[in-house]
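User: I'll paste a sequence; please echo it back and then give the predicted structure.

Assistant: Echoing your sequence first, then the prediction.
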Amino acid sequence: MIRLHSTATGDLIPLEPVRDGEVGIYVCGATVQGAPHIGHMRSAVVFDQLRRWLTYRGLRVTLVRNTTDIDDKILTKSVDEDREWWAHAYHYEQVFTRAYEAMNVLPPTYEPRATGHITEMIALIGRLIEAGHAYAADDESGDVYFDVRSWADYGALTHQSVDDMADAADADPRGKRDVRDFALWKGHKAGEPDTAAWTAPWGRGRPGWHIECSAMSTKYLGAEFDIHGGGLDLRFPHHENEMAQSHAAGDAFARIWMHSGLLNVGGDKMSKSLGNSVFAHDLIAQFPPAVLRFFLSTAHYRSTLEFSADLVETQRTAFDKLTGFVTRAREVLGAEAPAVPDAVVGYRDRAADVPDEFAVAMDEDLSIPRALSVVFSTVRDGSKLVAAATADGLGEADRTRLVQLLAQVELMLDLLGVNPTDRAWAGQAAGASATEGSGDDPVRAALDSLVDLVAHQRLDAKAAKDFATADALRDRLRAAGVIIEDTPDGYRYDLTRD
């Protein structure tokens, strides 16, 4: 039985899919106002790992991750950066995509943009007005608000009473019946681009933030679906408002609400107001993305994760132990080593299943730290066989056992998205991709080109069985601070840290 923590109930509940054999997940994606920070990557990695595990458990997963491409901040920041708002949004959408790809986050099944679903949002607002839970402001602003006091369960997700809540600061309060009422539709204002407004029964304008996700999630997953996810910072007001307006409109909506924990920097919550945001492109320029993803996996997804470069380096050492075992075991086994899979699908078509202890940990609210302890335990067992092979060779039974252990380790690492043999990491040393701007780095490009030249000379030498030359070229690269590793696709390289 898979059990997940429900924010609404405050405890673990069984995952009982709406449709047998299928799971629908909606994850709040980026508001593409600027470059992604490491907190965005943590949330993306968490739900990517959930998706991989549910797939392994035999469920057909539909994962929807939206893009909010119209928003007050997008309009403001596009002016600051001298772009049309839609060009600004598209630029940063691409930056987010590159960061997701660099971190080996699988593409969602669907990735809807808010601007592509205005019709559905207008229809949903109409249903709320008709049901008596929303109203058009009487100040001729064109604004439409959700009437929080009309819905008795408002506050159920975060266990708050309406009177204890802060004012909704998403629109001028003058047209509101209650300062906590939140905007479903924002009337077009003087000075805003004409292109940032759509025709609606209440006047030209654009959607409020919360209505976007209610409309997009139900369009792709139905009026009732299994899991709604996002970062803990979205719990209130965003997810609270989503749940209220969706239920008020008559939709059963999400059965389980999951939230990934916050990320602290220097003991403080990472936030733009504190100026301590750690951007993904800066980290990817400093650390290999596989190491970053591993670091993000070392704390339980609901816990607060403390970030520092030193902490990443500590986990880098741990990850290197995993990489070292996989590399050495493959060298010992040669052609007997399990094949590297072409894609992250068909987990069952592997040489081994995961150990029972790993499965128990993952089934119990995606307890990845416990699962990682199983990975390292398996690596320790396998490393003893590798050491024995180096010293005296292995008998048939021990080689068979090493094949099984290696297959288990790689499968577990695949499910966590950190398998060093995954082709997603090919060529991804620190700084290889996901830069904030165009992605071009002339220094990195020159290094890639020079390493590629020597690497292909080495491959040619190996193909000609001139192993002395191949080894000499490898040693020259190592002397220059470049560690090269053969892969089924050719090679990959990393930089030494001496």
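The longest strand covers residues 224-231. The longest helix spans residues 309-333.
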